[in-house]
Structures are given as C-alpha cells and as structure tokens.
Write a structure and sequence with these properties.
alpha+beta, globular, 5-stranded mixed β-barrel, single chain
Length: 204
Amino acid sequence: MIGYIEGAVLQKNDEKILILVNQIGYEVLLPTIVAESFKDIAAGDAVSLFIYYYQTEKQPRPVLIGFNSDTQKDFFQRLMTVEDIGPMKAARALTIPVQDIARAIENNDLSCLQRLTGIGKRTAQKMVASLAGKLERFIVEEASSREPEYRREEISLPVIDVLVGQLGIKSAEARRMVEETLAANPSITTPEMLLEEVLRTKPK
C-alpha cells in the first residue's frame, strides 16, 4: 500500500502529476485544491504528497490520489463515507479548501456544497446528514496548517521574482535555492532577509 510519495516532478497538468521515485514514475491524480498549490511547480522540482491508494474489482487499474497534508487526506476519507460518494467523486469535489467544505457541512450551507464539482442538492443533503457534528477539527486543523504555508509564500515569492527577473536564474532553480535557504534558516521572517541570505550562499 502506498501512503506517501516524495520525489521529482517529471510531468504535470491540471489534473495529474508524474513523480519520479527511485527510477519509477508514479502517476498521481490531484484534486483541484492540491493542483492549485502546485501551479508554480516545474519539471525537476522536488515534491511530496500523502497518497490514497484506490483499487477494486471494478477499478482494477490502481489510482493514486495525492494530498498536501494528512488532514486533507483524512477529510477526503470522511467524505467517502457519505452514500453515493466514491473516491473519484470525492476527489473532484475538493475544489475549495477543506475547512470551507467542513464549515459548510457544519452550518448546513447547501448552496455552498452544491457549488462543489459533481455535488447536487440531494448529495449535499446527504453530506450534512452524515457528517454534521463530526468535522469541527478540520476547520481548526486545516486553517492552522495553512497559515505557515501562506506566510512562507509571502516571503519567498518576491525573492523568486528577483532571482528570475533580475538575475536570470531559471524558475525551478530559484525556487530550489529559496526553499533550501528557508529550511536552513527558519528564523528568516522577511523577503529582504531571505534575499540577502540566498545571495550570500549563492555559488560564485
């Protein structure tokens, strides 16, 4: 059973990504919320995903569905407990952040749920009936896990723009430099500090 993948991007599109791990390419289906977080990822970049592995008699060809966090994957699995929602339908429905879907279910917001891909009024009602009262932790956990991610992007994106636009460094290489610098220096809190450290450690 495959539960987690870490490797380099070979190919990607709006729905799938091909990840090279130990000379084997794994094709992973990406829900919309995950694909959007990968929009700036290019071939050769390092990525990691939590994986839901799906294979049945009716679906003999294995399908791997990828998530940014274990919380996203857990919510996806909860969603599949709703009648008439299988893995593929649940994956297509993840078009807005997990905490927003959880909040809509807890608040009986059928209009919000019906805006999810493949979810009609009847299915939205089933989601509320099956899951209401059980999703509060997803509202808290996913929101808190996203805050550092947003903060990291606020710091890194301006620096990547400078490296690419002013210094002519390729986008994938610029992102790698920034990510390695942030990993080595977690105390960095501003784009200015990050750019100074990237330039200081940049190979001559």
